[in-house]
Specification:
- The complex is a heterodimer of chains A (about 290) and B (about 270).
- Chain A is mainly α.
- Chain A has a single domain, classed as ABC transporter involved in vitamin B12 uptake, BtuC.
- Chain A contains 12 helices and 2 strands, in the order H-H-H-H-H-E-E-H-H-H-H-H-H-H.
- Chain B contains 11 helices and 2 strands.
- In chain B, strand 1 (about 175) and strand 2 (about 180) form a beta hairpin.
- Classes of the chains: A mainly alpha (about 290), B mainly alpha (about 270).
- The interface between A and B is medium-sized, with 28 and 26 residues.
């Protein structure tokens, strides 16, 4: 067992790095849906915008470029999320499919615009200075940047958890997930809460794009791949739950990484198999909250 | 569904609830008008290759393929109320099956279409079995994931599918041993298959089974989007509608035989 662990340490650490990224992505998606029934399929496109911003500001050359990319991505994500919130407002009473089609259409437009601007080439982004090397972890060398990614992911998870569980703002969000009508009956404007949560969720998505750029690069089609992984995470974790998103992200990170390392031929099927298993055993996800819809 | 807007040949799917009442005698003339319109349209469609250039005939063939695809999606989304975003997966299964059958075995007329329909039905039964366990938005996400998985599969199985380059050299479809190389003949072939497809979907939508589909769609909408659909009806209902997109897809290689290839990217997102 210990030998197996040593041999696959790199894959396991990779799994944590992927899991961290997926959590940053999925938590916004999950809360927005849990609160407002808005399934934001443009989430993956926002992620890709972040990745291409990292390319634009040559994030790897200097810390200045990296931080500029992060800042611009955060701003764009926030604005895009706000705009999306406004666009979904007229569809609030319509079936879920209508909103999903709207956001899917937006994601297709964004992806097409990106491929017009940047072409169809695959870009790779180097790590920021000082994080480009690798360090020794229990005898195997591992890229420093990915260790930092794990740390950032866990830190963000802690921050999100604290905000959602311990602050009055978080209480508002949790209350909106549990019973939207009641919250609005108490005199709180649902649209403002939705605007804020969708904005922050999209911000997290585009920031995750910048953070992921040194690992995944930037290429057309990445948005779809990432969106599917995030959807699988929230299906497994249950919608509207921070804890579910974290556990789901870590599980899918390991499945994705170990699956690709141990059974490269059938990696996609292992992912899908995990999803199938969770759906059969717990159709609403592992940590689905009590949702009063 | 918006699907009907440009499909005058299928007014019945949209106005299905109205056609159940017996028409009063005074309205009989009004009722026969759509039938005349459909007849005129059919004649026009059939006459297209006689007065249009090959390029236009090719474009119309493509329109017919996607029209059938859209109508088949309507059976799933509009009538049964299952919001699927993975419909293109079965289109792809059908296209690859028809293409592979044509390359490796025979392109004799009904064989690729029928085998594509069977393959589409098998794929839909396998994935639908899982998808119908969820409801509402989970169904939407699952079908999106299934579509993406099939897309990745088509790209990774490059020995069979040609990967991202797609299938090369799909032979023209043959009718009675004679390959259809002229655009007009291919158009007629696709028109015939598409009309059969429309007729089949119309019959299903108006059969008692179609009534069950419509009813299950309505009730689960009434009961709220979290209502879990009853497993027994839902697996049968996901099976048969999902088999249908493979049918138009089978025309796809026939249309594209001379000009392009069946690439994983050729069917649009849902």
């Amino acid at each position: 067992m210990a030998g197996w662990f040593d041999a696959n340490l790199v894959s396991i650490l990779n799994g944590f790095a992927i899991g961290s990224l997926l959590f940053i992505l999925a938590v916004g998606l999950s809360i927005v849906f849990g609160m407002m029934d808005v399934l934001n399929l443009a989430h993956g496109a926002f992620f890709l915008v972040g990745s291409y911003l990292a390319v634009t500001f040559v994030a790897g050359e200097s810390w200045g470029g990296f931080l500029t990319a992060l800042g611009v991505a955060a701003l764009i994500g926030l604005l895009a999320g706000g705009a999306l919130s406004g666009m979904t407002e007229p569809l609030a009473r319509r079936p879920i499919l209508d909103q999903a089609l709207l956001t899917l259409g937006i994601s297709l437009i964004v992806a097409e615009a990106l491929s017009i601007i940047y072409g169809n080439d695959v870009f790779s982004v180097p790590e920021p200075p000082g994080l480009a090397g690798s360090v020794d972890v229990a005898g195997s060398s591992y890229p420093t940047y990915r260790l930092m990614l794990i740390a950032v992911g866990l830190l963000l998870a802690l921050v999100v958890w604290l905000v959602v569980e311990k602050t009055s703002l978080g209480a508002l969000v949790r209350a909106s997930v549990a019973d939207r009508e009641m919250v609005s009956a108490l005199g709180i404007d649902n649209r403002k809460v939705k605007f804020a949560v969708l904005g922050v969720g999209s911000l997290l998505a585009s920031v995750a794009g910048v953070l992921a750029a040194p690992v995944y690069g930037a290429r057309p089609g990445l948005d779809k791949t990432i969106l599917i992984l995030a959807l699988v995470v929230i299906v497994i974790g249950g919608l509207g739950s921070v804890r579910g998103a974290l556990v789901g992200a870590l599980v899918i990170g390991q499945v994705e990484s170990l699956g690709r390392a141990l059974f490269p031929e059938i990696a996609s099927f292992i992912l899908f198999g995990t999803l199938a298993l969770v759906l059969i055993v717990r159709p609403r996800g592992l940590f689905a909250g009590k949702v009063a819809h | 569904m918006t699907v009907h807007a440009d499909r005058p040949t299928e007014p019945s799917v949209a106005g299905a609830t109205a056609t159940h009442d017996a028409p009063p005698p005074s309205r009989r003339l009004g009722r026969s008008l759509p039938a005349v319109a459909v007849l005129v349209l059919l004649v026009l469609l059939a006459a297209v290759p006689l007065f249009l250039a090959p390029f236009e005939a090719n474009t119309l063939s493509r329109i017919l393929v996607f029209a059938l695809f859209a109508v088949s999606l309507d059976l799933l989304v509009g009538i049964t109320g299952l919001p699927s975003l993975g419909h293109a997966a079965y289109f792809g299964v059908g296209a690859y099956t028809a293409g592979l059958v044509s390359i490796h075995w025979t392109s004799e007329a009904p064989v690729p279409v029928l085998l594509a329909a069977v393959a589409g039905a098998v794929a839909a039964a396998a994935t639908g079995w899982l998808a119908v366990r969820s409801g509402g938005v989970y169904f939407l996400m699952l079908t999106l994931a299934i579509g993406e998985l099939v897309h990745q599969l088509a790209q990774s199985l490059s020995d069979v599918t040609g990967g991202s380059n797609g299938l090369f050299g799909i032979p023209s479809v043959r009718v009675g041993g004679e390959p259809l190389t002229l655009a007009g003949y291919v158009y007629w072939y696709i028109l015939a298959v598409a009309l059969l497809g429309f007729l089949g979907l119309w019959l299903v939508a108006h059969s008692p089974f179609g009534g069950v589909l419509r009813a299950s769609g309505t009730t689960s909408r009434e009961c709220g989007r979290w209502a879990t659909p009853p497993s027994a009806t839902s697996s049968s209902r996901s099976r048969s509608p999902a088999a249908s997109p493979a049918w138009p897809a089978a025309c796809w290689p026939a249309w594209s035989a001379s000009s392009t290839r069946a690439t994983p990217a050729s069917p649009p997102a849902p």
